[in-house]
Write a structure and sequence with these properties.
The chain is elongated, with a radius of gyration of 25 Å. 38% of the residues lie in helices and 14% in strands.
């Protein structure tokens, strides 16, 4: 009787182990599918930093530390770090904590750009990497090519009086659509002409005289 019970216990334990392994595999597959492909425009959500101070692109509304008091508890800040912190540190906050948010923004830009420069550019354009402009300018100038590309682009959604020209969407989404409208609301151009397939490059030509360019599912645009 004892041997039979022991054997049953062993079989039950084995079954539970197999079930757990199977469940874990499903979770892993779900995580893998949730992450954007290497050439998509969205940064990996796993790169999101844990909030430890005010958002990197937010300036305090209350009193801030004067520049003369921007000193860490140990060591010292570089000249560029002080420029980044100027006007950004609440009066009773450790400047090092605020500096960290900028450094984290730099790290996210660098990690995303290493996988896909379009993804990093799109994340800066859309603000998904908060405070990237100031962080790159003062803390990680090696990422200035990403910032330069982002400053020429714009996010999806309505855009008033856009510059005429050819643009490329920073996405592989197959549901990206766009249209350019004149002052009277007439559609001057729209696209894509044929439904895009996964991995297709999506472009748009904005005619001269466009009053509003509207797009959906396209994430962000840069000059083609």
């Amino acid at each position: 009787m004892y041997r039979r019970s022991a054997a049953a216990a062993v079989l039950l334990a084995a079954a539970l182990t197999l079930t757990a392994c199977s469940s874990g595999g499903d979770d892993a597959d779900a995580d893998a599918k949730a992450k954007p492909p290497a050439s998509s425009a969205a940064p990996d959500p796993a790169d999101a930093p844990a909030p430890s101070a005010p958002a990197a692109d937010a300036k305090p509304t209350g009193p801030v530390l004067p520049d003369a008091k921007l000193t860490p508890k140990t060591g010292s800040f570089t000249a560029e770090e002080k420029k980044y912190l100027s006007g950004r540190v609440p009066e009773k906050m450790d400047p090092a904590a605020v500096l960290q948010t900028g450094q984290e923004a730099c790290q996210r830009v660098a990690r995303t750009a290493k996988r896909d420069k379009d993804a990093a550019t799109g994340a800066v354009i859309t603000g998904e990497i908060a405070g990237a402009k100031d962080a790159i300018t003062h803390l990680c100038p090696d990422q200035k090519p990403i910032l330069a590309a982002a400053e020429k682009g714009f996010p999806e959604g309505p855009r008033q009086s856009p510059a005429a020209g050819n643009y490329r969407a920073l996405t592989q989404a197959t549901n990206c659509t766009w249209e350019a409208m004149g002052k009277d609301g007439a559609v001057l151009a729209s696209g894509p002409e044929t439904p895009p397939k996964a991995g297709d490059k999506i472009t748009a030509t904005i005619p001269a005289g466009t009053a509003e360019f509207n797009s959906s599912g396209c994430y962000a645009w840069i000059p083609a």
